[in-house]
Amino acid sequence: MALFAVQYTYTDDAERVQSVRPEHREHLRELHAEGTLLLAGPLSGAPGALLIVRADSEEAALAALDGDPFQRERIIVDRSAREWSVSIGDLPGA
């Protein structure tokens, strides 16, 4: 399996983001416990996040995140996945 950097862009509706965030984070914790999601966190400057996902393809990386409550509630307005290789340092679980 490969690693993929998935970038989320969120809606500007901060109130909606906050209302769904607990469910979103619980879902991501489950993916982390399964070993699918290695890292995740918000990006600064604009509403969005970066997630590092283990999958067989870009399509599979995005499909693994389809159950995200942010996706279901249309808080994610754009997302993309690109294969990512660690060239310096170690990533636990990679």
TrEMBL record:
Pfam families: YCII (PF03795). InterPro entries: Dimeric_a/b-barrel (IPR011008), YCII (IPR005545). Belongs to the YciI family. It comes from the Bacteria. This is YCII-related domain-containing protein. Residues 6-84 form the YCII-related domain. SUPFAM superfamilies: Dimeric alpha+beta barrel. PANTHER family: GSR2449 PROTEIN, YCII-RELATED DOMAIN-CONTAINING PROTEIN. It comes from Brachybacterium alimentarium.
